Amino acid sequence: MQGHRKQLRRFHEPGDVHELTFSNYRQLELLTRDDWRQMLCQSIDRAIANHKYRLVAFVLMTNHVHLLVFPTEVRPGELPDLDVLLSAIKRPFSYRVKQMLIAEKSPLLHELTVLERPGKPAFRFWQEGAGYDRNLRTEKSLLGSIDYIHANPVRAGLVARPGEWKWSSARWYESDKRIVDPELPTIHGLPPEAFG
C-alpha cells in the first residue's frame, strides 16, 4: 500500500513575507543541543544571505522551526523559490549532524537512518515533504505571525515569556533591535517596502 503524502500548494508571490515551518523527522525532539542549534543558525544565516532574503523573525523549537522571510531580489515575472532556500538551510545542517553522530558513534544515527528503497539507506533529520508555508500580505497578519512565532516556547512550557528563549528573534524585537546575539542568525526585521 502506498503511503499517503500530503500535497501542498505553494504560493510564491514576490512582494509577500513568507512564513515557513518545517519539522524534525517524526517530530522527534532533536533540536535540544546548543551546538546543533548554533549550526542551524549558521545554516540559516548563510542561506538567507546567499539566496537574497531578509530574515524577519524566527524561532527554533526542539522539534520544529518557524521562519519569516522576505525576498529582496525577485526579477519581474519571476517568483521566489522557497524550496531552494529551505534546501540550502536543511541539507548542509543535516550533513553536519550526520557527521557528528558518526564521529560520536551515537545510536541516534541508526534511529534517523531509513531505507528509501531496498539497499538504499538515507539519513533523515528533517521530516520529508514541503512543510508548511503561507504568505503574509498585510501588516496585521505579519505582526500576528511574529507574536505567534515568538510565543511558541511559552506555549511549550520552556520559558515564562518569549524574550527568555535564546533561540528566537524575540529579544531582538523586545530590545528595539539593541540585543544582537552573535550565535543567532542575522535578523533584518521588516523592510519598509513590504506592504507598500
From TrEMBL:
<dbReference type="GO" id="GO:0006313">
    <property type="term" value="P:DNA transposition"/>
</dbReference>
<dbReference type="GO" id="GO:0004803">
    <property type="term" value="F:transposase activity"/>
</dbReference>
<dbReference type="GO" id="GO:0043565">
    <property type="term" value="F:sequence-specific DNA binding"/>
</dbReference>
<dbReference type="InterPro" id="IPR002686">
    <property type="entry name" value="Transposase_17"/>
</dbReference>
<dbReference type="InterPro" id="IPR036515">
    <property type="entry name" value="Transposase_17_sf"/>
</dbReference>
<protein>
    <submittedName>
        <fullName>Transposase IS200 like protein</fullName>
    </submittedName>
</protein>
<dbReference type="InterPro" id="IPR052715">
    <property type="entry name" value="RAYT_transposase"/>
</dbReference>
<feature type="domain" description="Transposase IS200-like">
    <location>
        <begin position="13"/>
        <end position="152"/>
    </location>
</feature>
